[in-house]
What does this fold into?
Amino acid sequence: MLMRKIYIAGNWKMNKGLQETKNFLETVIPELNKLKLENVIPLIAPAYPFLEEALKGSYGSCMQVSAQDVSVHSEGAYTGEVSAGMLASLGLKYCIVGHSERRQYHNETDATVNAKILKLFENHITPLVCIGETLQQREEGKTENVILSQLSGCLKNIKLLSGEEIILAYEPVWAIGTGKTATPSQAQEVHNLIRNWLKSNYSDKVAEKLSLLYGGSIKPGNLQELLDCEDIDGGLIGGASLKEEDFLEMVQIGRKSKGQEC
It folds into this structure.
């Protein structure tokens, strides 16, 4: 049976300072080191100032570290921006792009996300690309059109050969930070739509190997039923990933799902 990588990815957003980051890693890393995780990849995305500390604190473990965003520019007079080259110089291997909060508060478009993906590829960093519809779009029956449009725009001129060069996360905007979660059937329907689009626009191989995450008010209590869905390969997790015990519990849930070693 094909086993895609399962990601338990914590997006910390603008939370946790330096000492809190250290404390989290000092608690979590020893527990992760006790586990045989096989295809399960724990990942955290701290704020920019603490990426280096997170990399140091997780060195030698299975924990991966991601940035939350990246600039479309390589260098120059762009105050406050951080380039993909700068992230690569830290040794970073992952970066989130296209999160709905970036789209909402910073007016980022699919074209912006596409440009960021290209910069990350140039620097051998795996993009974790977020797509998803608003509540209004869902209620108007536009979910499919919105998702397909975002896929086409974000992945324009992006070459994928193995399916492991990139991660996609479906995050219905109406379920982010609201306490609402898409039902497993709602989430699976969109994930299946995405996987079929990948088959049509890339190949069966890419579609079968590419990890599709769900994001939107995930917590230990609802992760299992989402992972039980055929096309959901992990979670992009906000608030619940900030608590050491919840993060570890979700890693364990991922570990026991989809035929992983348990």
The mean pLDDT is 95.
